[in-house]
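Q: Start with the shorter request: fold the first protein.
A: Done. Sequence, then structure:
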Amino acid sequence: MAAAAGAVLAQEAPGGPVPASSLGAHTLQTQSEGLGTSPVVTDPITTQARGSSLIVFNGGYLSNASGPGDSYGNRWKQLGNDVPFGNGYGDRFNVKAYVALDAKGGADHTVSFVKNGNAEGEISVPFIEIKNAGVLKDVSQNYAPTGLVMTSGNVTTTGPATLIAVWWGDGGVKRMSAVPDNGFSVIDSFLKLPDNSGVQCAVAFKQVAAAGTYHVNWRGVPAQGAILWLLAFQSK
C-alpha cells in the first residue's frame, strides 16, 4: 500500500521563508500483556502551539479499535487500513496509524486510546511531533517478509523533508535488534520485552535537504517479518 498527499510547496511568509520541517518532541508508551489499562495515555511532551504535524500509532489488539484523542482536541485521520500481524497471530493483533496536520499543541501534550476490546492487553503507542510540517507529502507501508534485512517502500519529496520510519517486528521473541541504515537514527524503541510479552516497536527519523526518493533498510536479529511505515513531512 502507498499513499501520497498533494504537492504543496513552501510559500514566503510575512516574516520571511517558512521554516523547514524538523523533528519535534516524541515519546513511546508501552503496556505489557495482562498489565495494561484503559485508556492508555502517552507520557506528556511539549509541542508547538501551532504549525506542527503529529503522528501516532496503535500497535496491539485488533479489538482495541477506538481512534486516538489528545489533550488539545486535534482531529486525527487514519492513514490507510489496519495492518494485521502475521506469524501465527491470526487476526488478534494489528497496527494502525493516525495523523493530525497543522495541529494545536503546547505543554503536557498527551495522546490516549480507549482500549474498548481488551483493556489489559499489550500495546505500543509511538507519538511523534514534526515541527513546521503542514504537509504529509508521501507515505509508504509494507509488510516485509521474514529476513535479517527488511526494506521499506519508497517515499518521494519535492524539497527538504523530515522522514519518520516505524518498524513493527512480528516474531514471537523477547529480545531483538532493529537498526536502520541510509542515515536514519533511532529515537524511540521497545526491543527488550518483559517475560509477559509486549509489542515490538522502533521509531527512526532522517532529515533530508533536497527533493528525492528515499527508503530505509532495517537490519535485525533474529530473522522475522515486520510491518514498516515510512512517512515524509514537509513545510507548507
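Q: Next, the second protein, separately.
A: Sequence, then structure:
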Amino acid sequence: MSPLSRRAALVAAAGALLAGCGGHPTGQATTAGATSTPSAPDHSASSGASGQSSGRAAHPLARSVPVGLRIPAIGVDTPVMRLGLAGDGSVQVPPITAHDQAGWYEHSPTPGQTGPSVILAHVTVGAYGDGVFRHLDRLRRGDRIAARLENGTTAEFTVTEVRTVAKDAFPTKAVYGNVDRPELRLITCGGPRTGDGYRDNVIVFAALGTAPSSAGER
C-alpha cells in the first residue's frame, strides 16, 4: 500500500472512532453515524512525534493492562475495559449502558509504556444521561490523570494539550503516531449534536510524569 493509501486508511479509522457517542441505549458497542469506511488504525504507518511540549523525563513502566482511570479535575473515577476491533474492522467503543465506563484500545501501548496509549469513553450515553467523559473538554494543561494498572501500580500523567477537532479532520498522526516517551490519549465526542452523534472529537494529550515547568496549576 502506498503512503497516501495508508494515510487514507488511518483517516477513515479515526473518523469512525466514537461516532456512536450519544446514541441509543442498546448495550452494544456502536459506530452508528460514521461517515467514512471503518478500519483499524495502521500503527506501522504512523510515525513522528505528536508535537507536545516535553516535561521532565519519566522512565517507561512495565506493560500492564489498565483497570481504572481517575481524573480529579473533572471528577472521573471509572473502571477501564478492554476495546478491540469490531467485526467491520472499526475501533470498538464502550457499550452504551447505565453503568458507563472508559475503554482502553488494546492495540495501543498500555499506560506508561513508550508510545501513545489510547483510552476512549462517551460524552453522553443516550437516555442514561452523561457519559464518563462528559466534561473532558474542561481539562487544562497541568491537570493530572492516574491510570490504575492490573499489576497494582499507577501510571501518573500530566495533561499537555486539549484539542476539539472536527471528526472529518481528526489528527490521526498526532494521536496514533510514534513518540519516544510514554504518553496518553483520551478521546470522546464533542461540539454540536448532529442527529444521534456529535460533530467533533475532544482529544486530551498527556505525558507520563510531572508537569512541564511552564504549566500552571489549578
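Q: Describe the second briefly.
A: Confidence is low (pLDDT under 50) at residues 1-16, 22-40, 43-55, 212-218. The beta strands are 66-71, 76-83, 102-105, 115-120, 144-149, 154-166, 182-194, 197-208.
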